[in-house]
Amino acid sequence: MSSPYASTHSQVGELYAGHHHWLLGWLYRRLECHQQAADLAQDTFVRLLDGLRPKVRSAFLLSQPDGLTYPQIAGQLGVSLSSVQQYMAQAFAHCDQALSP
């Protein structure tokens, strides 16, 4: 059985993958600094997650752009695996709401 947030997970991944490259290029052309362009592109993506508690946002960012597994995230954040699962469910629900028309 698939997760109720599998569709949202896919949409967020597609949103990031589909827009990160052009956004990064656009920012770089204006700033002429790879580091600043990368920071601003990441900040733009993070704004999708405004309103989430810090650990929920951190777990989501470690999972999505960084590609860590849930056990790795649990270790990095110093929380249980079930906490990471709860954080991710909250983040996907938030993204689902933000992406809904």
UniProtKB/TrEMBL annotation:
Pfam families: Sigma70_r4_2 (PF08281)
Domain RNA polymerase sigma factor 70 region 4 type: 45-95
MF terms in GO: DNA binding; sigma factor activity
Keywords of this entry: Sigma factor, Transcription, Transcription regulation
InterPro entries given in the database record: RNA_pol_sigma-70-like, RNA_pol_sigma70_r4_t2, RNA_pol_sigma_r2, RNA_pol_sigma_r3/r4-like, WH-like_DNA-bd_sf
Superkingdom per UniProt: Bacteria
Any one of the GO BP annotations: DNA-templated transcription initiation
Signal peptide span: none
Stated family: Belongs to the sigma-70 factor family. ECF subfamily.
Protein name: Sigma-70, region 4
Source species of the chain: Pseudomonas delhiensis
